[in-house]
Design a protein that fits this description.
The chain contains 16 helices and ten strands. The chain is α+β, with helices and mostly antiparallel strands. It starts with 13 loop residues before the first helix and ends with a helix. A hairpin with a 7-residue loop joins strand 5 and strand 6. The chain is globular, with a radius of gyration of 25 Å. The protein binds (R)-mevalonate (MEV).
């Protein structure tokens, strides 16, 4: 495992961090500039991405440290506005690396396209007619993307369900399973579904209504596991047993109650989304997939599990759909997204998904460890105080000084911050 040089990243200045990154990962000056915000997406480029562009909207970009995923050291770019997330992921990755880091894998990158077929004389018969012509349909769907086919992707199968009762009576739902390789896949799927519809209408005699990808990408899963050794669990006044059992009890809450599960999974998505956004991927798609997957059994539950390991340590797992790409879309247009992928040394969408799901698991651990011991506010307080200090008008060194004062007073409020600034300026 190539060891990333140990450095107290948070102690470095912005310039020193950029220099360190360039040295560690051999990034070119323009790639570093894209990550630091010196260059990056221009309004002119943005104007080609969406409509009615007037400018850009920035987010902080941090680097999570200590991650070892499948034996490889990874520096993880995270785009997020919330304090404590990057620090939490980095710290939990440090605990996990004592147990070998994160072990992650993905299922094949198979996405699902859906087609709604209505106005059928005999829906049950139409269903079988479609299945009989599966080979023809797959051949037709395979024609849409020669590049994808050359890379080993393409249609894999057809499934058809009969919805017997609905507001419009019975109808059929056709699923096209499509291996999209390193793409997120929405374009390939939607094109294939539109291409298939005349043939499906001919076969069934019905009318094809909706043709669109499903965000419940439950055939394209990413899974990660980690072990926190017993020796890494204790801290402050909390014993290893208390930390481990507290985390398991916190997980048990999320595994049985949807109100808690929503918050628990939100904590996972803090990590997941930050990397998805940093790499120019569609975080709404990943969010939709995650929450639908969490409810797949008819009840919304935790996406992760936490249990006691063989040596008394803590074992975590996370499994969720991960529709992310490394080709196409913003991943290849947005200079910061391109540099983010380069920074991680990611070669494929699966590799990216493995890192993302590992970050999600680390983030979940960070939240549960805090919640199960000293509470979330203590850790949050310092960073929150810095945001309040900036909002009150503090600049430069004054930001930390004011934040420390607010925390010492246990009064992290903007009116008090303004008051202190005023006192200091007189
Ligand atoms: C806050 O952004 C996320 C947490 O609420 C997650 C959790 O409760 O597990 C701390």
């Amino acid at each position: 495992m190539a060891e990333t040089a140990r450095v107290k990243f948070y102690n470095l200045s912005l310039e020193e961090r950029a220099r360190w990154l360039a040295e560690q990962r051999g990034l070119a000056a323009d790639e570093i500039a894209a990550l630091t915000g010196e260059s990056g997406l221009t309004p002119e480029q943005a104007d080609h991405m969406i409509e009615n562009v007037i400018g850009l909207h920035a987010l902080p970009l941090g680097i999570a440290q200590n991650f070892v995923v499948n034996g490889r050291e990874v520096l993880v770019p995270m785009a997020i506005e919330e304090p404590s997330v990057v620090a939490g992921a980095s710290f939990m990755a440090r605990l996990a690396r004592a147990g070998g880091g994160f072990f992650a894998h993905t299922t094949p990158p198979e996405m699902i396209g859906q087609m709604q077929i209505i106005q059928l004389e005999n829906p049950a018969e139409a269903r079988l007619k479609i299945l009989e012509r599966q080979a023809d349909l797959l051949l037709e769907a395979g024609k849409i993307d020669a590049v994808l086919a050359r890379l080993g992707g393409g249609p894999r199968g057809i499934e058809v369900r009969l919805i017997e009762q609905s507001a419009i009576g019975p109808f059929l739902v056709l699923h096209l399973i499509y291996d999209v390789r390193d793409a997120m896949g929405a374009n390939a799927i939607n094109t294939a579904m539109e291409r298939l519809s005349p043939l499906v209408e001919e076969i069934t005699g019905g009318k094809v209504h909706l043709r669109i990808l499903s965000n419940l990408a439950d055939r394209r899963l990413a899974r990660a596991r980690c072990t926190i050794p017993f020796s890494e669990l204790a801290f402050n006044d909390f014993s290893a047993d208390a930390v481990r059992d507290g985390i398991i009890a916190a997980w048990a809450f999320a595994a049985s109650d949807p109100y808690r599960a929503a918050t628990h999974n939100k904590g996972i998505m803090n990590g997941v989304d930050a990397v998805v956004i940093a790499t120019g991927n569609d975080w709404r798609a990943v969010e939709a997939g995650a929450h639908a997957y969490a409810a797949r059994g008819g009840k919304y539950i935790s996406l992760s599990t936490w249990s006691k390991g063989a040596d008394g340590g803590l074992v975590g797992t996370l499994e969720m759909p991960m529709a992310v790409g490394t080709v196409g879309g913003a991943t290849r247009v947005h200079p910061t997204a391109k540099a983010a992928l380069k920074l991680m040394g990611v070669q494929s969408a699966s590799q990216l998904a493995e890192i993302i799901v590992s970050v999600g698991l680390a983030q979940n651990l960070a939240a549960l460890r805090a919640l199960a011991t000293e509470g979330i506010q203590r850790g949050h307080m310092g960073l929150h105080a810095r945001q309040v200090a900036i909002a009150a008008g503090a600049q430069g060194e004054m930001v930390n000084r004011l934040a420390d004062q607010l925390v010492a007073e246990r009064n992290v409020r903007i009116d008090r911050a303004e008051e202190i600034l005023h006192e200091w300026s007189n």
